[in-house]
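DM from R.C. (forwarded with permission)

"hey, sorry to bug you on a friday — could you get me a structure for this? deadline for the figure draft is monday and I only need the backbone to look sensible"
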Amino acid sequence: MLGGTKTKVFICDDHPLFRRGLQMSLNEREGIEVVGEAKNGFEAVEKILEEQPDIALIDVDMPGLSGIGAIRMLRKARPDLKVLVLSHHDDDACVRECMGAGADGYVLKSIEVDELVHIIDSFCREKLVFSAYLLNLSVADEQEETDACPDALLTLREREVLEFIAEGKGNKQIAESLFISSETVKSHIKHIFRKLNVTNRVQAVQIAKKKYLRDRR
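My reply, with the result:
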């Protein structure tokens, strides 16, 4: 994957069966090699510094040092390391905390292996990732919303939501398509309206067709 060499992946999760199943699935893919695994944050940091993987797949909830704590430590010790959070949590607060810790991506554990491999490859190649499984790591807090301006760039997830709006889908349909909650969809739409300086979906789509949707894929 990286210049003809295998992408070295590290897995950190406190469930042995999940680790083993994911390791077997990834090792079956050409261009990927799982070089290590850990059951908690402390063990992950120690082993990652030894094994020097290209990307680490880290769960949030673990005993001892949490995944978020491990990400903070790794970001200081290995700033070049790609970190992808694998979690069953789908809420803005958790995503925002992972973002603040320094994660590069956040996906739910319901992700298909093929899509996970695609995201791993894209991250390690420094390519822009378009995936319905990749949750938005640029969730704005209240202060950021206040400071937002019409010329602010839309995040990847906001563009995805806008694409579905342009297709005429409602909040529930968008939520089901992106595997997120309806409340999260509402939050994204609020951010989109603020950034585009519009008050409804029709206005948002009109502006987006000129500025964003044509570059979607």
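R.C.: lifesaver. The two ends are 21 Å apart (CA to CA).
me: no worries. Confidence is low (pLDDT under 50) at residues 139-151.
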